Amino acid sequence: MSDVNQIIFRKTIYALAFYLGNLYLNCVLIVIINERLPSQEFPLPDIGFEFLPYRQFAIYLVEFYILFLGITLIIVFCTNQFGGQIARRFCVITGISIFTHAACLVTTQLPVSDVRNYCHERIPANVSNFEFIWELLKRSWHEMFRFGFFNSIIMNNDEQRRNFCGANIDNIRAIHIILSYQFLTTYVKSDRLPIRFLFDKLSLYGCWIAILLIIISRTNYLVDILFAYYICTRTFNIYHTIFMNESFYHSTNGNMFNRFWWWPLLSILCH
């Protein structure tokens, strides 16, 4: 492997570690919030819940769609001429978005979004500090690995279907759906205009249907979805605006983008 390829490979590994690290951080906070939320809180009023019916099976369809998006993105990463660079950008942008989600997740805890959502039991109060931390990390690791892997489908009883209460304001699913749509419609190209038009429309409809299914399943408040949309679109558009203008590559007085905390990641991981 040449020196250039080694550098590219290391950058890809670092970008993947940045993404997975932020995903695990979210899982840790979700488990911590499960220990903090009052157990008898009622759901907040939500306009999405008022106009859309509750259907438990909707979350199954969302998980199928997330798996489909993941497979499609992997195909793009492996077949595109610049697949490695696209993969690094996806990891960094998604990592930034879910880190922002983590920062907001820990500040305000909303009640469970539906009374039919079962919460995991809390860690017993009579354990030692070491046992508490160990159980916290173990639950966080389990929460991370069950994300998007047909968790709702393969678990066949109420006890197994229990979620951490923090996951009821977990819009990580929405973040991945929105960013996957943006990446696919940006980097999947076709010289044939009808195919391109059809792909963009189907991707758009699929994204919005998945978002509606999340609300129908009552796993997220509508405000979480709007928040995820704002984070994802702003981060994606600003990030790519910087890449499309070489004048923003350098820290100068006229480059206000360098005030973002994640601006150094561009030169380190994604060039």
TrEMBL record:
GO biological process, one term: ceramide biosynthetic process
Record localization: Membrane
Pfam family name, one: PAP2_C
Superkingdom of the organism of origin: Eukaryota
Gene Ontology molecular function, alphabetical: ceramide cholinephosphotransferase activity; sphingomyelin synthase activity
Topological type in the membrane: Multi-pass membrane protein
Membrane-crossing segments per the record: 12-33, 57-79, 202-231
Domain (Sphingomyelin synthase-like): residue spans on this chain: 177-241
Keywords: Lipid metabolism, Membrane, Sphingolipid metabolism, Transferase, Transmembrane, Transmembrane helix
GO cellular component: endoplasmic reticulum membrane; Golgi membrane; plasma membrane
Keyword Transmembrane: yes
Keyword Transmembrane helix: yes
Family the entry assigns: Belongs to the sphingomyelin synthase family.
PANTHER family: PHOSPHATIDYLCHOLINE:CERAMIDE CHOLINEPHOSPHOTRANSFERASE 1, SPHINGOMYELIN SYNTHETASE
Protein name per Swiss-Prot or TrEMBL: Sphingomyelin synthase-like domain-containing protein
Organism: Euroglyphus maynei (Mayne's house dust mite)
